[in-house]
Each structure stands twice: as structure tokens, then as C-alpha cells.
């Protein structure tokens, strides 16, 4: 296998994960995130990351609280939630429609739902099942969008929406 074929094969393997993680891959601080704010797609993300990496401004910003960075920020990622949903959609739909189950519990763990909020999370997702799974053929992004809307609109769960 030549190098071009290997690169194409690698890109095809990574493409589904990058599509699921299509949120904010660059971060929310540093010059790159400010210069390319609001732009989407591969090119702006690469340019923003390159800007931050080339000038080291994101590291400086986090250290000193400049360039839109804070020192109290938490590292988080939504790709785990997307990957989990993508690999467990049928089981998750079953559990969510019932309001309990191993897969729904695992989703709560992936999202970092506190034990004190789990019962409310289960009830809320059951009550809003049709919003989260709008059809039998709902793709991962539709489920993510629905789940995020439901969680964000619930006063008790809204803090978890950043993890979706």
C-alpha cells in the first residue's frame, strides 16, 4: 500500500468521528478562536488551531487569563457522547423510551451526570423521547441535537448540555 492510499484510508476512518465531533474542536480561547469565530469547516478549524499553536497564545492565555481564556476552565469534549450514541443508538432508544436501563445509565456516565441528577435525567429523557429520537432512522447528529435541546431547556440538567 503506497503512502497516498494509506492517507486516504486513514481519512476515511477518521471522517465519521470528525463529523460526530463537529462542534467546537478548536477551543474557545486564543487568537485563532477569535480570528476565525463563527466560521465552520475544516479550513477555519485548522487555521485557528495553527494560529494558536504557532504563536503559543492559547497556552499563554490560559496561564495568564488573556485572549478570552480563563484559568478556571474545565477541559471537556463532546466527541465521547457522539461516539457513544453512534455505537449504541438502538439500545439507547429502547432504554430511553422506558426511562431506565444499562445503556441510558452509561450515557449519563459519559455525560458526567451526577448521581443526584440521574433519576431526573432518566425521567426527562423518557418524557422527551420523541424530541430526542424524532424518527426510527434518526442519525447520530439528530439524536445529539434533540438531546442537547432537551437537556439545555431543563433547569436542573442544563449544565450538562455542554457535554453533548
What does this protein structure show overall?
The chain is an all-alpha fold and 164 residues long. The protein has two domains: 3-64, no CATH class; 79-163, no CATH class. Helices cover 65% and strands 0% of the residues. The protein contains nine helices and no strands. The longest helix has 20 residues, at 79-98. It is elongated. The model is unreliable at 7-26 (pLDDT under 50).
Provide the domain count: 2
What portion of residues is helical?
Answer: 55-70%
Name the shape in a single word: elongated
Number of beta-strand segments:
0
Largest sheet: none
Q: Overall pLDDT, averaged?
A: 79
Structural class: mainly alpha
Terminal CA distance: 38 Å
Number of helices: 9
Radius of gyration: 18 Å
Uncertain spans: 7-26
Beta percentage is under 5%
Write down the secondary-structure element order. HHHHHHHHH
Provide tags for this entry.
single chain, mainly alpha, 2 domains, 9 helices, 0% strand
How would you summarize this macromolecular structure in one to three sentences?
The chain is built from 9 helices and no strands. It is mostly helical.
Describe the protein's topology.
Blueprint: H1 3-20, H2 31-35, H3 42-55, H4 57-64, H5 79-98, H6 102-111, H7 115-127, H8 129-132, H9 140-153
Amino acid at each position: 500500500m503506497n503512502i497516498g492510499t494509506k492517507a486516504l484510508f486513514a481519512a476515511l476512518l477518521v471522517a465519521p468521528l470528525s463529523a460526530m465531533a463537529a462542534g467546537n474542536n478548536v477551543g474557545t480561547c486564543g487568537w485563532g478562536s477569535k480570528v476565525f469565530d463563527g466560521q465552520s469547516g475544516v479550513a477555519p478549524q485548522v487555521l485557528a488551531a495553527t494560529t494558536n499553536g504557532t504563536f503559543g497564545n492559547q497556552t499563554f492565555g490560559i496561564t495568564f487569563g488573556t485572549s478570552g481564556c480563563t484559568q478556571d476552565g474545565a477541559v471537556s469534549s463532546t466527541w465521547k457522547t457522539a461516539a457513544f450514541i453512534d455505537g449504541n443508538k438502538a439500545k439507547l432508544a429502547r432504554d430511553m423510551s422506558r426511562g431506565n436501563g444499562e445503556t441510558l445509565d452509561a450515557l449519563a456516565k459519559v455525560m458526567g451526570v451526577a448521581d443526584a441528577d440521574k433519576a431526573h435525567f432518566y425521567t426527562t429523557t423518557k418524557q422527551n423521547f420523541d424530541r430526542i429520537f424524532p424518527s426510527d432512522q434518526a442519525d447520530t447528529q439528530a439524536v445529539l441535537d434533540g438531546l442537547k435541546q432537551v437537556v439545555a431547556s431543563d433547569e436542573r440538567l442544563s449544565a450538562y448540555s455542554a457535554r453533548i
